[in-house]
Design brief:
Blueprint lengths: L6 H26 L2 H12 E6 L6 E2 L5 E13 L7 H12 L3 H8 L6 E7 L1 H10 L4 E10 L7 H4 L11 H5 L1 H4 L4 E6 L13 E3 L6 E4 L3 H17 L4 E7 L6 E7 L18 H4 L9 H10 L8 E3 L4 E4 L2 E4 L6 E3 H6 L3 H8 L4 H10 L28 H6 L8 H12 L3 E2 L5 E5 L5 E4 L6 E2 L3 H17 L13 E10 L5 E14 L6 E8 L7 H4 L1 H14 L21 H10 L4
Helix pairs in contact: 3-4, 3-5, 9-19, 11-14, 11-17
């Protein structure tokens, strides 16, 4: 710069040099730091990417009846850059879609090439929006999960979200099989936002999900749901559940809970309705747990069915605590201790066994551990080691206190008595299949573990037949089919740690027929009222389902073999006297 240059010109030149320097710095920044974000913005203006969702796999019952299917519904989307009069379009779409104008306007004002307006809408809404003929508003088919039977088997199946991801039940547990693989549709648009045919156009087709076959029988599930609903409403229970199971394979033929929900609109029901109580709730079982003490005593041969115990006329003091029977009894044979559900007789017998041996059989029967059923959310229940037991624990646990169980654990335990002494693992999924029917994964029944001898199991079946024939569960008897089982009525524990005198858990677990069991049925009622005995509120539900199962499988009634059941005539005052006595004690 020459010496005689005016100062004003020098200032302008300096300013230009500084501006040029800043511009160079900006160019370097754009090239090195901001190139990709800016490129992405530019790319989004002429590239269109739409996800193509796969069809979720079908869930079938054991007879290949559809329990969960997928249908295609229209979803409505906008290409905001194509919509000219966004205000007018927002007003028209708001009326058709039933949403606020501001919400629509906000979506249409985005500097994006794609925005959802409504997902999986009814044909009526689609027709209304099409009639508006707004440029930049389009439609795409999306798969929608549908449960044809509504609330039936809802806690087994679960449900999905808007994008077909499993959220509960088998939909969640086997989501990776059922969901499939998402596809994509890519397209290129010109400056006027028109799709350029054949230019860099690419479509990756989605891969549909695999199908699932369950052990559930749709008809049995329907029967179980209906009878459980009747009992649940009749006795105003807080909750209820039922399990129908094959005692030899562990196949679950039906599983239902109350309250329930419609998976087609799961969000309309509170979370409590969606809880699978059969595997997620644990409770003190009360007298239904006496099958464990009785089986242990017989297996260890410390008690014979004919051994007699004095039941203290209904009141027994032990270690500073007084125990009661619901109905006073004097001397009872051990088979009648179980038949009439005597707490005192059971406690006295179990004292011969001792804590360690009782605990061994509690664990062998599967309590305190998950059964391994394929449903998500299963809990262990609570059993404690004898080293932590108090002086009262042996007596309390023998009659179903100080231990918590789940409904499915009780079903497995009673199955071991029904099938000859083997603990089975429950199964609810048979196989995963592809669209051609080829089996991808098969879920075989697990080899059962022997927990008691066949001789002990047979003796227990005879004793439990007595419970139904002339004991605490006469309301469970099905003429001509001779079921067997055990009632339970347990006081619930209050928040202060004491036992409630107004809140109870009632149960009945049984099988039919007693001498050749085909089915195991467990029925649980949470806080039924005004009646709360298992023999009153749960046994009738068992009876109705058992009778219908026999009819469904064409198993015909037969006459009782009096010689085989001669033991029933023993006990209090002969059979007729025993029945009169039992009616006083529906425990």
């Amino acid at each position: 710069m020459y010496k005689g240059t005016p100062s004003r010109i020098r200032k302008v030149l300096y300013a230009l040099i500084i501006a040029f320097g800043l511009l160079c710095v900006r160019l370097v920044f754009v090239q090195l730091g901001a190139a990709k974000p800016l490129s992405d913005i530019a790319s989004s203006q002429y590239r269109l990417v739409v996800s193509l969702l796969p069809k979720r796999g079908v869930i079938y019952d054991r007879n290949l009846k559809e329990l969960a299917i997928t249908i295609n519904l229209n979803s409505i989307f906008a290409e905001p850059l194509k919509v000219k009069d966004k205000g007018l379009a927002s007003e028209k779409l708001a009326d058709a879609l039933g949403v606020s104008r501001n919400e629509i306007y906000k979506k249409l004002s985005q500097e994006k090439g794609f925005a959802w307006l409504a997902r999986k809408v009814s044909p009526d809404i689609v027709r209304s929006v099409r009639a508006l003929n707004i440029k930049g508003i389009d439609f795409i088919k999306e798969p929608q999960r549908v449960y044809p039977n509504g609330a039936m088997a809802s806690h087994i199946l679960g449900f999905t979200d808007i994008d077909n991801n499993g959220l509960e039940g088998l939909e969640l547990r086997f989501n990776k099989y059922l969901k499939g693989v998402i596809g994509y549709r890519y397209a290129v648009r010109d400056a006027k936002q028109r799709e350029v045919p054949g230019y860099e156009h690419k479509e990756i087709q989605p891969v549909d999900g695999d199908n699932m076959v369950l052990t559930i029988d749709g008809l049995i599930q329907s029967l179980a749901e209906s009878e459980l609903e009747d009992g649940y409403k009749k006795y105003h229970a807080k909750g209820a559940c039922i399990i129908v199971m094959d005692p030899y394979t562990g196949d679950i033929l039906a599983l239902s809970n109350r309250p329930n929900f419609d998976p087609n609109n799961a969000n309309a029901s509170p979370p409590d309705s969606r809880r699978n109580r059969a595997i997620c709730d644990f409770f003190e079982p009360g007298s239904s747990f006496k099958i464990i003490a009785a089986s242990s005593l017989l297996e260890e041969k410390v008690v014979k069915p004919s051994d007699k115990f004095f039941c203290e006329n209904g009141e027994y003091k032990w270690c500073g605590h007084t125990y009661h029977d619901h109905t006073p009894h004097g001397w009872l044979e051990f088979r009648d201790v179980i038949k009439f559900s005597s707490n005192i007789g059971t406690m006295k017998a179990t004292q011969r066994l001792g804590p360690e041996r009782l605990y061994k059989y509690i664990k062998k029967f599967g309590f305190g551990a998950k059964t391994g059923v394929e449903l998500p959310g299963e809990v262990n229940g609570i059993t404690t080691n004898p080293s932590t037991w108090s002086k009262l624990s042996l007596c309390s646990i023998s009659m179903g206190q100080e231990v918590t169980v789940t409904a499915i654990q009780l079903a497995c335990a009673i199955s071991a008595l029904a099938n000859g002494g083997n603990l089975v693992k429950p199964r609810i999924v048979q196989a995963i299949q592809d669209k051609t029917g080829r089996v991808i994964e098969k879920f075989e029944s697990k080899k059962p573990q022997r927990v008691i001898s066949e001789e002990t199991a047979k003796e227990m079946r005879n004793i439990l037949r007595g419970v139904v024939d002339s004991g605490t569960a006469e309301l469970a008897d099905v003429e001509g089919y001779f079921p067997a089982g055990k009632t339970g009525t347990a006081q619930k524990v209050e928040s202060n740690g004491t036992y409630s005198h107004s809140k109870f858990t009632a149960s009945f677990i049984g099988f039919v027929p007693y001498d050749d069991p085909k089915f195991v049925i467990a029925v649980i009622m949470d806080e039924p009222r005004p009646f709360y005995y298992g023999g009153v509120v749960c046994a009738p539900v068992f009876k109705k389902i058992a009778g219908q199962l026999m009819s469904y499988y064409k198993i015909y009634p037969k006459q009782q073999d009096n010689s085989a059941m001669s033991f029933l005539s023993s006990g209090l005052k002969g059979k007729n006297g025993a029945k009169r006595e039992a009616k006083k004690n529906n425990r």
